[in-house]
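Hello again,

I reread your note about wanting to compare the complex against the isolated chains. To keep things tidy I'm splitting this into two emails, and this first one only covers the full assembly. Below are the input lines as submitted, including protein chains and any nucleic acid or small-molecule components. They are followed by the predicted structure of everything together. The single-chain runs will come separately.
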Amino acid sequence: MTNILRPYDDLTDVLFALAARDFPDVYGGMGTEMNDVEANLLYLRAEVIGGSGGRLNRTSLLDVEHFADRYSTGKMQAEAFSAYLLGYPRSVKVGERLVVLDEVVETRPPVELPWDDSPIRRFAATYQISVRR
Amino acid sequence: MAKLETRTGYKPDHESFGRFLLSEQARDPAVEAAHNIVTLAQMRAGKDTGKTAESYKVNENPPPVTLQGNPRATADVYSDDINATRIEFGNKRTRAQRPLGKAGAEIGEMRGQPG
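Full-complex prediction:
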């Protein structure tokens, strides 16, 4: 008998749903693109860069970036978000489904990365996040 | 009367193991993984990255990295190309390609150590 498995949810959608629910009115925008960052500060950007998975669980490597107009704002929110994720497990509804973050490992804590020649500050972190199917 | 046998049980030798973690033997797998990351990143880097992909190098003898309080021998992958940061992390006009990050993640998964 062949099992047709339910597809995994997009982890960036899960992250944005968590951020919208648990950090209300903090972010001016969220997304995976970089070209609409500056008009929507404080901006949360996420992108999956790798991972591995099986029938029941998937572990993804996720870049999470915070863009802000000041160092203190960006750094504080990046650290707050890091502390929030590391307080796993977390669950959130994405569409009709409940998604559970079982484990989070911070493989790169928030560090500042250059953002062109503009005064905008960017803080990037990388997380290894395990979710259930 | 025979003397009773005394047993000391297992005593971990933290000092010797600490020396092992800083040894060439412990560094070898890290160096091998670093070279694999460079090869994979060069293979996957977009053609538009120009000389950046060719600039990826391995530092086989960087200072030890301390993980959970324990110093360990390691190896670094780096680039001295001026465009490497833009290609790796992106900017307003260039999407982050993450050639090194993705190659590192992939090699890590192959070795059973995601990320």
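For quick reference: The mean pLDDT of chain B is 84.

B.
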